[in-house]
Amino acid sequence: MPIVLKCHKGIGPAVTGTALVAQDNFSARYDLDRLAGTFSRPAHKLYGQSYKDKILVLVTAKGGVASAWMLHEMAARDMAPKAILFDRANTILAQGAAFAELTMLDRFEAGDPTTLIRTGDELKLEPAEGRVTILDRDA
Amino acid sequence: MKLTDEEKAMLAGAQGPARQWAIRHQIAVGEFFDASDFVSVGQAHIMADTESLGEAGVAWLEGLAALPKPERTVRIPTITDPRGLDFDSYKRLKQTDAMADIEGRATRAFEALGVLMTNTCINYQTILPPVRGEHLAFGDTGVVIYSNSVMGARSNFEGGPSALSAGLTGRTPRYGYHLDAHRAGTRHFAVAHQPHDLADWGALGGIVGRATNSYWEVPVVTGLEGAPNSDELKHFGAALASFGSVALFHMPGITPEAPALGDAFHGRPTPAAMTIAKADFDAFYAGYAARGDKVDVVVFAAPQLSLLEMQQVAGLLDGRRVHADTSLVVTTSPEVKFAADRMGLTRRIEEAGGIVAAGVCFYQSYAREMAEANGWKRLLTNSAKLVNIIAGYGYQPTLASMEHCVDSAVAGRIR
After folding, report:
1. Nearest beta carbon to residue A90 from set B60, B81, B157
2. Which CATH number does the domain B5-180 belong to among 3.30.499.10, 3.30.365.10, 3.10.270.10, 3.40.50.1010?
3. SS3 state of residue A21
4. Which residues of B touch A77 (CB under 8 A)?
5. Hey, are the CB atoms on A62 and B156 less than 8 Å from each other?
6. Where are the domains of chain B?
7. DSSP-assigned states of every residue in B296-355
8. Which residue among A8, A41, A92 sits closest to B157, beta carbon to beta carbon?
9. Tell me, what CATH number does A34's domain have?
10. Which of B25, B52, B53 to mutate: most A Cβ within 10 Å?
11. What does the pLDDT profile of chain B (415 residues) look like in tens digits?
């Protein structure tokens, strides 16, 4: 049986993809080289790694309001993550996900998703149901 | 969400596609945060620099701007955060004509929507200060935290699309800091070492922010001797919001929702305090230290400078000259720039070799491209917010007092 994680109802379409997990936070302005599609802040735990088409799993959103536009701009260039899962989103990333039609979920019943999901896990995200399934690991 | 008849009409498209998009966007966000309904807001403040917007965002705005005037015009006063470029100074900062072109397009689109191009992140000092209890839809985290905490107004961090939506609909979903329940203190910090200057106030914000580290936490800061001024609270709040994603703080006896310590926690038991000592300040500065290094650019920005800060910078530069291998950049709001021009402050800063840019805030101004074009790497500033942001753009930032920054700009090395 795949592992099913329940969470708050999310934003955006249902998607599947590969997880990139860190116990760190997220700001499109502070943390990313958006042209290269990589984490560019040296102190970030995903420094140097590509986020394109990944399902990012992080603790919370940090920093400025610019991320709300940036997700849309990144998606228009096909340089966005496929989805973002947070332990707790902030308003900006939720607004940005709504504008960019990017999938976002948070508030998991079993706790912080960075402790539940591992990098490389294949995930199915269903925002309308508030459900994330780890497809390639058994409960 | 419970909708009024007017909101239902907007959602159905009866007021045109712009307001229909806006309220649909707001409902998606409101439902994510379990908002029960909308609340009317008095002003909206849009962060929408062209670097963030990109071609996709500008083209999207131009689509709205092409709608008939009654359908596209905002219905409450709607103002803007700093822009990506100042037309009077961009060539000196080695920004490009392509950047100026896209900036012009974005500005024309916003103007067509009826947006006032205030281009400032210190609107609470220069445009119309918020009032206690006033509901707002403000962008720029520094603007929101100041308006919520120092003025007692009520706003969430509203990203550009959401603030523009609020301008178009005149309302915002009632969640987060619009609700009393979210405004109670949740953390307690006792200051055992008094901040001495603006960099120290920013450092204090950074220390509290790192320890708080959540949009949904409300730090309460005690132990301050005397009331800080507006610029000090501006740097404290901007750094707290930047390092911690925090939107509201209380300072008992200073900020309006906390006349006394118990009020800050809404009558609940006061949590044990985390003490902030001189060693915490020293460690914060040490994290950015670079004594003896060549300094490429000294920046006074983030937030934009008040008229009083402009006077301080001018005074420190009088009779001195910025080193030939170092740049010194000052950013302020257009309103302050007009005043600084009139009072001779701009001339004094620029005669010493500085550049005064208006309507921008450095990090929102293609910072990576400016670094490459100017050969900038080591950046010195008195803004804790800026040192937090700018490393992501390839800079090596150092934090120091305004006096120390000016001394280093003149010497060309970090003193």
Report:
1. B157
2. 3.30.499.10
3. strand
4. 54, 56
5. no
6. 5-180, 184-285, 288-411
7. -EEEEEEEEEPHHHHHHHHHHHTT----TT-EEEEEE-HHHHHHHHHTTHHHHHHHTT-E
8. A92
9. 3.50.30.10
10. B52
11. 999 999 999 999 999 999 999 999 999 999 999 999 999 999 999 999 898 899 999 999 999 999 999 999 999 999 999 999 999 999 999 999 999 999 999 999 999 999 999 999 999 999 999 999 999 999 999 999 999 999 999 999 999 999 999 999 999 999 999 999 999 999 999 999 999 999 999 999 999 999 998 899 999 999 999 999 999 999 999 999 999 989 999 999 999 999 999 999 999 999 999 999 999 999 999 999 988 899 999 999 999 999 999 999 999 999 999 999 999 999 999 999 999 999 999 999 999 999 999 999 999 999 999 999 999 999 999 999 999 999 878 899 999 999 999 999 999 999 8
Distance from CA of B248 to the nearest CA of A (A): 14
Interface contact flag, B215 A68, Cβ < 8 Å: no
Alpha-carbon distance B289 to B148, whole Å? 32
Provide the ipTM. 0.92
Amino acid at B279: A
Helix (H, G, I), strand (E, B) or coil at B277: coil
Other residues' Cβ atoms within 10 Å of the Cβ of residue B230:
14
